[in-house]
Amino acid sequence: MTEIITKLIVDCTTGEQTIVPLTEEELAEREAMRFQAEADRAQREADELAKAEAKASAQAKLAALGLTEAEIAALGA
Amino acid sequence: MTLIQHIELGSAQANITLSSIPQTYTDLYLLFSGRVSVTDGGLRLRVNGSTANLSTRLLYGNGSSATSATDTTYIGTVSDSNTTANTFGNGSLYFPNYASSTAKSFSGEIVHENNATSAVQWVTAGLYNSSTAITSLELFNAGSGNFVQYSSATLYGILKGTSNGVTVS
């Protein structure tokens, strides 16, 4: 059985609350946004990983130049 | 500040829509508490039944890192199926001069509760670039999930004037 996805609409003037199924257009938009959200999350995770790797690489290079951990931390690296 | 409407979900719903918002106030203040049924707790906003003419700028922190983002309708995250069971995120959106005939800015703060090292806070600056007054606000999940039972939303209207040293203009 297919799940019927609904939304709650509240009329702020009358206080009436109505639960209605999403329209075909809303369902399509919802599906498109799900794909976009997955892509955005993957991109965000890739960006964070790249940033962490770049930071680790920079710290390693600074250490190779002879900086102590405290000196590297003082640089904000 | 006057309560316009408060709702608490009796069952899971994809969207929460506050429609026919009275045009008799100066500002709107929307508070919400929510948890979604999927792993993506992202929240999006629809104004007047549309995602058009919206833009947001976001600051995000999770306890160990902070970043920023640009989006159209994204306003932050609430608790999701990966966060501690039965926790709810909460947030607020403030819409000054929501009935004006010029572009309308809004601001938001949202926290994504989680009993763990990583929990998330969002600060949002948004713009509804339309001359149409705001008559409806709709919250929905970015990841196609539903708001779970007991999620809630409360809308207040704020009138301009001064009270106890606080001025709204």
Please give a structural write-up.
- The complex is a heterodimer of chains A (77) and B (169).
- Chain A is built from two helices and two strands, in the order ββαα.
- With 77 residues, chain A is α+β, with helices and mostly antiparallel strands.
- In chain A, a hairpin with a 5-residue loop joins strand 1 (6-11) and strand 2.
- The mean pLDDT of chain A is 88.
- Helix content of chain B is 0%, strand content 51%.
- Chain B has a single domain (2-161), classed as Jelly Rolls (Sandwich), CATH 2.60.120.
- The radius of gyration of chain B is 16 Å and the shape is globular.
- In chain B, the strands form three sheets. Chain B has an eight-stranded antiparallel sheet with strand order 1-12-3-8-9-10-5-6, with no helix packed on it. A four-stranded antiparallel sheet of chain B has the order 2-11-4-7, with no helix packed on it. Chain B has a two-stranded antiparallel ribbon with strand order 13-14.
- Chain B has strands spanning 2-8, 15-19, 27-34, 42-47, 54-61, 66-71, 74-77, 89-95, 104-112, 120-128, 137-141, 152-158, 161-163, 166-168.
- The chains are: A alpha+beta (77), B mainly beta (169).
- The A-B interface holds A 5-15, 17, 19, 22, 26, 29-31, 33-34, 36-38, 41, 48 and B 4-5, 7, 9, 11, 13-22, 40, 42, 44, 51, 65, 67, 138, 140, 142-144, 146, 155.
State the main characteristics.
heterodimer; A: 77 residues; alpha+beta; two-stranded antiparallel ribbon; 2 helices; 2 strands; 61% helix; 14% strand; elongated; B: 169 residues; mainly beta; Jelly Rolls; eight-stranded antiparallel sheet; four-stranded antiparallel sheet; 14 strands; 51% strand
